[in-house]
Design the sequence.
């Protein structure tokens, strides 16, 4: 005779998110004690976590949360192994809960986030490990962005209709302008600029680009006297392609992003772009 009821199975599934057969087996092993069954499932799940450590997690989802007054916002990426899991309600609920936790606690960095308590007595790392155990795949949290202070907005993009959001962009303007914020965020999603402006490009990157440009120009047999001007032009082309403010605006290619901002009378303070797995 079963030493548990259907209600016990239902309760255990709600508490752990584990499949019905695993819940039934845990209740049998624990002689119907739900608390002992939960502990058994956690131990079993944690063993699975260790086994999955070496596996690749390149699928997943990006979630965002913007304050009602747009003074702050968050985007966070949670990765998993397959798009099947990424599409699931449980995985997406975990991602959204992490976004809400970040918004509420403003962690300084990833290390602080993982060490913070998302539930009484439970760190974010433990919370993610539980999702790992429950969903049966390697689950990884290793990126988030959070802005506060100016006018913050987000744009979320699906790369496939049946997938959750795969690209998230967070932007901060110095003053409110919803239309410009959305347009710039859409541009960032499409063109993935590496830096905000030329001033943000690391000096070693600029030097490398200048060296390559000079070598290529010499190999083309250009006159020695023309080298400085040609090299400078190519470096400026690099800035135009890779810095947000220098790029041609997606919605009006005759204008740069900087020009769009200037015409609107706003300044883009910063931006962040996250694409799942990249």
Sequence:
């Amino acid at each position: 005779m079963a030493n548990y009821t259907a209600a016990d199975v239902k309760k255990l599934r709600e508490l752990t998110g584990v499949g019905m057969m695993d819940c039934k087996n845990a209740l049998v092993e624990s002689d119907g004690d739900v608390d002992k069954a939960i502990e058994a499932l956690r131990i079993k799940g944690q063993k699975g976590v260790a086994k999955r450590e070496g596996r690749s997690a390149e699928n997943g989802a990006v979630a965002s949360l913007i304050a009602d007054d747009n003074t702050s916002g968050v985007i966070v990426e949670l990765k998993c192994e397959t798009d099947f899991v990424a599409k699931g309600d449980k995985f997406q609920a975990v991602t959204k809960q992490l976004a809400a936790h970040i918004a509420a606690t403003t962690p300084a960095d990833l290390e602080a986030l993982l060490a913070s308590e998302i539930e009484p007595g439970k760190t974010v790392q433990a919370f993610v490990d539980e999702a790992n155990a429950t969903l049966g795949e390697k689950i990884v949290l290793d990126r988030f962005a959070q802005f506060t202070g100016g006018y913050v907005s987000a744009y979320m993009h699906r790369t496939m209709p049946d997938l959750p959001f795969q690209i998230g962009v967070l932007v901060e303007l110095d003053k409110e302008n919803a239309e410009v914020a959305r347009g710039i965020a859409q541009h960032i999603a499409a063109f993935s600029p590496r830096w905000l402006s030329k001033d943000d490009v690391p000096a070693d990157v600029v030097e490398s680009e200048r060296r390559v440009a000079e070598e290529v120009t010499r190999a083309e047999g250009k006159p020695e006297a023309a080298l400085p001007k040609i090299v400078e032009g190519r470096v400026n082309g690099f800035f135009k392609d890779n810095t947000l403010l220098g790029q041609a605006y997606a919605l009006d290619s005759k204008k740069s992003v900087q020009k769009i901002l200037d015409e609107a009378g706003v300044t883009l303070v910063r931006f962040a772009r996250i694409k799942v797995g990249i």
Notes: The longest helix spans residues 34-52.
